[in-house]
Design a protein that fits this description.
The protein has about 240 residues and is an all-alpha fold. The chain has one domain (about 10-220). It has helices spanning about 10-30, 50-85, 90-110, 120-145, 155-180, 195-215, 220-225, 230-235. The radius of gyration is 19 Å and the shape is elongated.
Length: about 240
Amino acid sequence: MLCCMPGVSFVPALLVIWSSAAFIISYVIAVLAGHVEPLVPYISDTGTRPPESGIFGFMINMSALLAGITMYIRYLLIKKQNESSHFVSSSCNMFSLCIGLLGCAGMGIVATFQELSVPSVHDIGALVAFGSGVIYITFQSIISYKSCPKWNTYFMCHLRMAISLISCIAFIPMIIFASQISMTKIDWTPEEKDYTYHFVSAVCEWTVAFGFIFFFLTYIKDFQRFSLRILTEIHED
């Protein structure tokens, strides 16, 4: 099915499918193994203990790679569109790419340094991944508005901005409530101290994560307009 998609739209489509599968598969295995409670664990909690830890690490690293490729193609598309109608500065386009790639690096850290093994490094990676991701989709939403109406519809711009706002709003309590938790553990129960902080923070984390997925889903239509040949020519210039 992906091979039949026009242009380079298969890239964000593959990213969305793979990332969704990474979250869902790790969650299902962790719950069935009794490693986490079914009610909203942290995403990282579902990939801390074997066997789900190996699957989580591999799939999230692949998601980071696919996200980086998607962001680079998006950068090239904006560069190509700017050749006929200058709507955004090249420095803004480059900054968006760099902040996005920084988020991908954060994802790699999260996947490599597990929550219970190296919690401080893991937490830094998560902060970088989510923080950079929120900034990236916000910048891309603004760029989308600047490209209207030639390269984007206002409906698509409104949709992207709505996803960005929801992700930004969820990101703030995610950090605030996570900072109030006094212990590092993965098997939470409602009776425990700090459970409310954990629950609210985890809900916000899943909201932001799937906000990223839905945002990249909106790239599919844009990527249909361009072929790999065009992108290669841009890269060579």
